[in-house]
Design a protein that fits this description.
About 65% of the residues lie in helices and about 0% in strands. It has helices at about 30-50, 85-120, 125-140, 140-155, 155-185, 185-195, 200-235, 245-255, 265-290. The protein is mainly alpha-helical and about 290 residues long.
Amino acid sequence: MSVAETAVPDPTAPAAPTSPPVRRPPFRRPAPGVLAAGTWLALVALAALLLPLLPWFDPLHGDFAHPSAVPGPGHWLGTDAAGRDVLQRTVAGARASFAVAGLTIAVGLLGGGALGLAAGWFRGPVDKAIGFATDLLMSVPSLILVMITVALRGPSLTVIGSLIGLFTVPHFTRVVRAVVLSLSERGFVQAARMIGTAPLRILRREVVPHVAPVALTFAFTATTVAIVAEGSLSFLGFGLRPPEPSWGGIIAEGRTTLGSAPWISLAPAAVLCLTVLALNYLGEQLRSKGGRG
């Protein structure tokens, strides 16, 4: 019976090649501006979502013992002429603005995205028909039409957000259409066509993943438009009915007391401006990175 010999490695044999260690990409700290803008938006969003859940939160409650009180402990942003806390009303106004912005993006992104995909992919008569419809919609004085509709239907977040979203559809359509026209000439799309892949499958697998980042980047601009438009409508009296708080409505309520109680208008105006500035800055940063990519 033979004994199996134990294999002894040859010390003169060359060492087996080893794979290079996997290097993780270095962590890049966000730029100070991006960090500041993101932090501000996170604070405003968290305040709008969480503070209304607290039992003492009541933006409609009036402290009649302290009307137009200056900012200080107990009322950190002061009170308005009816003794209502300006900080609580500003937070509640943020909920209204974000609700309108969210509905605007939903309508504009879904409607404009679908139209842009159809126009850029099918071209020809479909592209011309969609182009004519978007040009026609863009020629309508949007703010005036929204005010007329709100006057007839009554003010509500659903009506205001849907109407503002309708007027962002042409802009989303043009952005998505331009990207689809560029992608349709790329090699991977042409290859998918040559092997007989169904058009809807090409759109879903090859086109939409490349269109989505561009459309979402443009959504930052549409969000600022929605917030400013809602504030403008409320300031003109076509937003939520008082005493329901909105940024534009609070600013309008305090304009008669700018000389004696400027904090009533300045507090929501400052929050509105900083929020729009943060959204614009983040959107610009995303666009610049996308352009370099």
